[in-house]
Amino acid sequence: MTRPTGFRPPASARRAIASRLRAQGLRVTAQRVAILQVLARSTGHPTVDEIYRGVRRLFPMISLNTVYKTLSALRERGELIALGGGEDGAIRFESNPTPHHHAVCLGCRKIQDVMDPGLDAPERSPRLAGGFTVVGHRVELFGYCRGCRGEGGRSPAKPPEGRAAPRRRGRRAHR
Description:
Strand content: 5-15%
CATH architecture of the largest domain: 2-Layer Sandwich
Number of strands: 5
Mean pLDDT: 73
Structural class: alpha+beta
Strand order of the largest sheet: 4-3-5
Low-confidence stretches: 1-8, 167-175
Order of helices and strands: HHHHEEEEEH
Largest sheet: 3 strands, mixed
Helix content: 25-40%
CATH class of the largest domain: Alpha Beta
Number of helices: 5
Distance between the termini: 47 Å
């Protein structure tokens, strides 16, 4: 996550960030604005440490705890999504408001955005009959990126040594 030292977005962007914080019931502090600026400028899914390093360029005295608390408050208010299974297994953050899903490579743990309208209509599934109302969803696809498939283009039969496949939760049939 490389940012120019002293990066400062336009005043209109800072005002928009301040407005978002106020709308979520949070005080507008320079540190919170800087955290959202770093997230907005990120081209990927940064970890807490990457966000912290980016904010420290602007606020050298900011604590890691402040970054954690701010990210937690924003996540609780729906401003951010926490994603697991990044390249290093760390929690990564998504601030992209555009509806999309994610593909996670089981080899290198890279997370890629997936724009696929076919994944966007779970509320029309016949399995959701019986009064269940869908209010949101998130899809994470697991597989192997081009780099991890190797020259033959075939996926490894199992994750590389030291990498665990994602745990399957809630897959048991309830009768």
